[in-house]
């Protein structure tokens, strides 16, 4: 029996531009025939990974980069400083044996000569422990004057995955045998209501020029516009607990991963235009369900865009819609989550009681950890 952990979040975001498209506009999407604010899943996953460091040691995390030769060369030197002159060569041989295509790094502007080691043609996700074991392997091969072998490298990369790698997966285009299926899926966050992007016209004053009495040009030092919107977002993510356990190979590591994801995903906020808008908020309503049938997003609650009233805004009707959608799906399909947890701010707490008595967020995470521990112990 497979278990899934679904995270449903409602979060107010004031004027902001946390996730831009190629023209600099806040990302949007059409849903239910209405234009909605949108924050891409990639954006929120990236920020979630950045916050992982607050809850996990670097040993539990990995690196997603194309500078894999540099990273491995550093590990080789750390294990045997005598190999420093040839560390980059040894690292390159490992990745070439695996079949990963490498290329010269992009030259810096006005650089007289090329600097830096080769880089991969795409980003590669490696755990800290995998890097260390690859370095040990390269050092051993060098000591025996042997070339690295593809099968042996594949074995090293198919174990000891980091938490972020186990959650978000790895795709290596040149060798599918070291791919890792993601145990976590994250939806694009969308507003529960329709939005229209707005424009902020700004000017910047030249401090020195503005104090010069003889200055005839009284205009601004610069001017421009920034596009923004504000919204109540519905955020959704799900974890396949059994796949996460398979990727990590340990019950303890799986519990740590769920704990870290719950805290990081809830508290993470993409940082686009933060200095301009300071849109740092935390969710107003959190609903976590543990299911043994399939993941279920509640985004259908907002297919008909929420409309605000002067006395409620968008949040209260959005929470009400979320609660009703959860009950309607349960009634229609005859399935009930194995367990449910809620946390809310202010009036949201009263509405969430229809699902489960709300608790403080630290208690929610602790209760979820205990349940995950029990499920893993039972092998369910």
Verbal overview:
By secondary structure, the protein is an alpha+beta fold. It has helices at residues 41-52, 68-79, 87-98, 128-143, 150-157, 163-168, 207-211, 241-248, 251-267, 274-277, 315-333, 348-352, 361-378, and strands at 4-16, 28-31, 34-39, 62-65, 102-103, 119-120, 124-127, 184-186, 189-191, 198-204, 222-240, 285-291, 339-344. The protein contains 13 helices and 13 strands. The longest helix is centred in the last third of the chain and has 19 residues, at 315-333. The chain is flat.
Distance between the termini: 6 Å
Strand content: 15-25%
Report the average pLDDT across residues.
93
Major beta sheet summary: 9 strands, antiparallel
Rg of Cα set: 25 Å
What is the β-strand count? 13
Number of helices: 13
The dominant shape is flat
Order of helices and strands: EEEHEHHEEEHHHEEEHEHHHEHEHH
What structural class do helix, strand and pairing data support? alpha+beta
Q: Helix content range of the residues, please?
A: 25-40%
Unreliable segments of 5+ consecutive residues: none
């Amino acid at each position: 029996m497979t278990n899934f952990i679904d995270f449903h979040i409602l979060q107010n975001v004031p004027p902001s531009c946390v996730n831009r498209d190629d023209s600099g506009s806040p990302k949007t999407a059409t849903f239910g025939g209405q234009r909605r604010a949108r924050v891409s899943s990639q954006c929120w996953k990236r920020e979630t990974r950045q916050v992982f460091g607050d809850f996990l040691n670097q040993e539990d995390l990995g690196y997603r980069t194309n500078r894999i030769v540099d990273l491995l060369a550093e590990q080789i030197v750390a294990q045997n400083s005598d190999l420093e002159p040839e560390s980059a060569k040894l690292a390159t041989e490992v990745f070439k044996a695996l079949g990963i295509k490498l290329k010269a790094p992009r030259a810096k502007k006005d650089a007289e000569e090329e600097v830096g080691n080769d880089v991969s043609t795409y980003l590669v996700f490696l755990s800290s422990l995998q890097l260390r074991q690859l370095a040990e392997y390269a050092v051993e091969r060098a000591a025996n004057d042997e070339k690295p072998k593809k099968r042996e490298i594949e074995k090293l990369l198919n174990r000891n995955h980091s938490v972020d790698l186990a959650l978000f997966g790895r795709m290596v285009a040149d060798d599918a045998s070291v791919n890792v299926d993601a145990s976590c899926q994250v939806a694009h966050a969308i507003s529960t209501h329709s939005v229209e992007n707005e424009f902020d016209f700004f000017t910047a004053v030249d401090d020195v020029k503005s104090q010069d009495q003889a200055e005839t040009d009284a205009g601004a030092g610069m001017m421009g516009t920034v596009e923004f919107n504000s919204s109540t977002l519905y955020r959704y993510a799900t974890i396949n607990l059994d796949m996460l356990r398979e990727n990590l190979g340990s019950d303890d590591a799986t519990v740590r991963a769920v704990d870290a994801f719950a805290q990081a995903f809830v508290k993470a906020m993409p940082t686009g235009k933060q200095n301009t808008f300071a849109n740092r908020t935390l969710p107003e309503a959190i609903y976590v369900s543990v299911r043994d049938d399939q993941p279920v997003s509640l985004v259908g609650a907002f297919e008909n865009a929420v409309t605000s009233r002067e006395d409620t805004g968008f949040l209260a009707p959005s929470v009400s819609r979320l609660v009703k959608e959860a009950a309607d799906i349960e009634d229609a399909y005859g399935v009930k989550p194995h367990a449910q947890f809620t946390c809310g701010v202010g009036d949201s707490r009263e509405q969430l009681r229809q699902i489960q008595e709300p608790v403080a967020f630290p208690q929610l995470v602790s209760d979820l950890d205990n349940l995950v521990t029990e499920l893993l112990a039972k092998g369910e």
